[in-house]
Design a protein that fits this description.
about 35% strand; 5-stranded antiparallel β-sheet; Immunoglobulin-like; alpha/beta; Rossmann fold; 2 domains; 9 helices; 9-stranded mixed β-sheet; single chain
């Protein structure tokens, strides 16, 4: 009730004009759908409202609630006007699902694009922990709230997980944080064979920052990192700094509605990518980066590639430390593309 009182406050100052004076054109409708940002699929009971305005004056506020499938409809709105759509869950604004400047024509119905919405019960996801990133926190923000955790700081537990192909195949997605234990693991022939078989069979692998060794040692033909490819950790020479990342993937640029955004490298010893196999690797982000011996111009920052029926994605930066609305949308894009 407090929210309703707040949004209606702007229309109490003067009487509303008659419907005849407001309806210069036929009324129309705006419809959409709301996703539960903390998982569980579509959100029932969310508050959706808009203002009917005239020369920046609020004439009326129209408020509805989403149904069991997250759908909402605001009908009988005066046509020939622009509307801003606001979405709340309780008192929490869902800004990433709000819409500004929705034009409603004469007697038309506008259906807003549905957001990507993850039902966590549909996917089996494993997250390998590490000391350099926290992918699980970002996955939680995009709706993947049900994951199995593998202790990447325990070499025995990690080796046991990666050494059992059936254990890997139980998951649709495996996310690997930077800073996991590597000694005797990333160069293990059985581990490499299992990872290749997992991905080629349709699995998806995402690795961040210092977890690059798993990708480099298993698919050396795909990415060329700084340093000696045969030596684990040899590429970990990246410098701290903020990079103005160019969105090099046109589909991602369309999804983000942006062609640049800032990426922070808040810790040194990350692994810069020099080049990629351009015939098989998609570069999602590029930027000018510094490392201990120099600089790289327009180096790949985030990439992905196919291997058999599955895919591998790699981020040279820490994902959790760059958490933002843009980053979450990027992770949604990758998730649905993997």
């Amino acid at each position: 009730m407090m929210l309703l009182a707040l949004v209606l406050a702007g229309c109490e100052a003067e009487p509303l004009p008659s419907w005849d004076s407001k309806l210069a054109v036929d009324p129309g409708s705006i419809a959409g759908r709301v996703c539960n940002a903390t998982g569980g699929g579509w959100l029932q009971g969310a508050t959706v409202y808009t203002h009917v305005t005239d020369r920046d004056r609020i004439l009326e506020t129209r408020l509805v609630y989403t149904d069991r499938d997250g759908r909402w409809l605001i009908d009988d709105l005066p046509g020939g006007r622009m509307y801003d759509i606001f979405v709340y869950h309780g008192y929490v604004p869902l800004d990433d699902q709000a819409e500004e400047g929705v034009w409603l024509g004469d007697g038309t119905t506008v259906v807003l694009p549905e957001p990507y919405c993850v039902d966590p019960s549909v996917y089996n996801v494993a997250v390998v922990s590490g000391s350099r990133d926290d992918l699980e926190s970002v996955l939680h923000e995009i709706g993947l709230t049900e994951v199995d955790r593998v202790d990447g700081l325990d070499p025995s537990a990690l080796l046991a997980f990666l050494s059992e192909l059936d254990a890997l195949r139980a998951y649709d997605f495996i996310f690997v944080n930077g800073g996991h234990e590597e000694d005797g693991i990333v160069t293990d022939a059985q581990v490499q064979e299992n990872l290749r078989a997992y991905v080629e069979g349709g699995g998806s692998l995402f690795a961040s920052e210092q977890a690059y060794d798993l990708v480099e040692q298993t698919w050396p033909e795909k990415l060329e990192f700084i340093g000696n490819d045969s030596l684990p950790d040899d590429a970990q020479v990246g410098s701290m700094g903020v990079v103005n990342a160019a969105v090099f993937d046109p589909n991602l640029a369309y999804w983000l509605n942006a062609d640049h955004f800032e990426i922070g490298y808040t810790m040194s010893e990350w692994a810069p990518i020099e080049s990629v196999d351009t015939e098989s690797v998609t570069i999602h982000l590029k930027g000018n980066v510094s490392y201990s011996d120099g600089e790289l111009s327009q180096a790949p920052l985030m990439v992905s590639f196919n291997s058999g029926e599955g895919q591998v994605a790699y981020s040279s930066f820490g994902v959790a430390e760059n958490d933002s609305p843009e980053l979450r949308k990027l992770m949604q894009y990758l998730f649905f593309g993997l």
